[in-house]
Amino acid sequence: MNKSTRIFLLLAVLVIASVSSVSSVSAFSKVAARYSVIEFYGNSSKPIGSVDRIGIGLQGFVFQDDFFQSFDIDAVDVYENSAQIGFSYGSLVNTNTLFSVGFSFTDVKHKENFEQISNGFIYSYYYPKIFKIRMYNVDFNLNYYFGSPVKQVLTPYAGVGLQAGLLSVSVSNFASESDFVSALSFNFGADLNIWQATNKMAKLNLSSVNSYQIYASDNRPKYMTIGLGLKYYFRP
What is the reported pTM? Predict the structure, then answer.
């Protein structure tokens, strides 16, 4: 088991422990009107910023000029829009602060041909689509609602998120390679209530799930994501 996989498994254990802690706190906090939250979502991710490499190790390369100096290429010239799905479990505190942990998967789409002009020379690169890039993330999010998603019909929110996990590259007949990667994001969106239990102990919201990543580690592309999700709020 390589180092990247061990780190990812450790994060997974931390997520499970965090979820257990959230559940325990919720179970003993009925008086505080604490809601538990289960969310499922999907989104479209647009590459942003610039990158100086693609892939991992022998299944990737760094963009360099004739003097072995690395340079950046706009991410939109290297990567295509990608799809992401995920789920999370969390707790709504004081009816407007949501902390959640979960998992997400991104099928990273890339272009085959891209180029950059450096010092008057054109450098062209070819990275065939037989190389499959995927991300498996553990997600931590802290979002603040400008109102209450369990008391109001429409409630906007903003917050921050940390994504950490594995970037994996695979190609037929070769061993896959993976690396530990991370990213920080600014989250924003809104919840729209579409169903409520008669006893008001459970609610289902349609949620706009969006983010803009302000940092990403070397091998990882940054994204602006626009998506939709379902959040199920319930009192334990």
Answer: 0.86
